[in-house]
Specification:
Blueprint lengths: L5 H15 L3 H4 L7 E2 L15 E7 L1 H4 L9 H11 L4 E7 L5 H11 L6 E5 L2 H6 L3 H18 L4 E5 L9 H18 L2 E3 L22 H20 L6
Parallel strand pairs: 2-3, 2-4, 4-5, 5-6
Antiparallel strand pairs: 1-3
Helix pairs in contact: 4-9, 5-7, 7-8
Amino acid sequence: MNVVRSSLVAALFALVLSACNSDSKTEKADSSPAATATQSPLNQPAPSTGKKRLLFFGNSLTAGFGVEPDEAFPALVGQKIDSLKLGYEVINAGLSGETTAGGRSRVGWVLRQPVDVFVLELGGNDGLRGLPLTDTRRNLQAIIDTVRRRSPNAQIVLAGMQIPPNLGASYAASFKTLYQEIAAQNHLALIPFLLEGVGGDRKLNQADGIHPTPAGHRIVARTVWKVLQPLLAGTNSPS
């Protein structure tokens, strides 16, 4: 992957820094660990729908900070799935301000019910805080291990993130490759960069210049769909 442009990395720095700071205001509102793409809470067992379960597990990007629930990329992916009649229930377990340590703590709670596909989008907040990459790696691995214990047959997709070189070029480069290494070691499907084509573009971000607009989320949804679609419906199914 090419080196991220300066405008892009600056926007990414603002994105994750905001998740660490301003999103703390939304954590109380989002303190329920997860909700489905249609806002059905997970704090009670969901009635059986006979469908397979696709769960997005991440931070404010997944939670859809600043947009309507049905405009966030997990809901848009759910709309695509419904249009193709693929038989999946989509669950949005995003939590604003989440770190990999926080995700490690709550993943078991979220997985009280088994899932068939698990999309893991965490780590950006760790990177912009300059947390040791050994900790981020360990937490991500622990989440993956928990998913495999709770749902042995689940397919896991890892969403990659990048950070600017403010904390050193070596740290930023190692952060980027961390996702590639974890995906390879665990045989996971990898989204190389979740914000591809969105980060750094003012027209695709909200007034704060940080979080994607509905149009930005539509691009993120397409990026995610390119990786998810073969897993859900086979490589020869319509896209």
